[in-house]
Design a protein that fits this description.
Shape: elongated
Number of helices: 6
Largest sheet: none
Low-confidence stretches: 1-26
Number of strands: 0
Order of helices and strands: HHHHHH
Structural class: mainly alpha
Radius of gyration: 20 Å
């Protein structure tokens, strides 16, 4: 008797697939395709965001939109908005919502994939945990974008600017931790694929 639990496209299989293919091979096959799609989408969105927001990079804003994410005072916000085209900023933020979906899926699926390659223990547990942490980074990015949209519309307070700043700081920290885990896992993934 076959017992299967499918989560979305299915990364959890109990028993054997009706085709006779090993469940772990099916999981890895789905995950490899999903990682590739999410990675390509992420890279494309980075290119689109950089191209569309190229005018946001100035002498006072070398980090372009990232400078807005970390603008934690009214003075800094006004300084940035005085040299930027507001419609370019708004469009860049709205496009970023697509990037959030792409990078969140990539980080989550890649962490799960790497976790499957570790032979148990803390690194495997960490991968499974970081797969969920990726969604927290995405949620923080969504909150940050909504706060920035309010800020550029003139609806901000000192507290909302600080909140935007901390959403960005925590988001980048979480993403960096996940990327570090993926880099540390890369030799294990390569060894297990050979």
């Amino acid at each position: 008797m076959i017992t299967s639990v499918h989560l979305g496209r299915g990364y959890l299989f109990l028993g054997q697939h009706p085709s006779g293919i090993s469940n772990s091979l099916l999981n890895i096959s789905y995950m490899k395709k999903d990682i590739s799609v999410a990675a390509i989408a992420s890279v494309l969105m980075i290119a689109v965001l950089r191209w569309q927001g190229s005018s946001l990079q100035t002498v006072i804003s070398p980090g372009a939109i990232i400078d807005l994410e970390f603008a934690k005072s009214q003075h800094r916000l006004v300084e940035l908005l005085s040299v930027w085209n507001i419609s370019v900023v708004t469009t860049n933020i709205w496009l970023d919502f697509l990037f959030i979906v792409a990078y969140t899926l990539f980080l989550s699926i890649a962490s799960e994939f790497c976790a499957m390659k570790w032979p148990g223990g803390i690194m495997q547990d960490m991968g499974h945990t970081l797969a969920r942490v990726a969604y927290m980074a995405g949620i923080l990015d969504i909150a940050e974008n909504l706060l920035m949209l309010q800020s550029i519309a003139g609806n901000f307070t000192a507290t909302s600017l600080q909140l935007t700043y901390y959403c960005a700081a925590v988001k980048f920290t979480l993403a960096a931790i996940i990327l570090l885990y993926l880099l540390v896992s890369l030799p294990v993934v390569i060894r297990k694929n050979n």
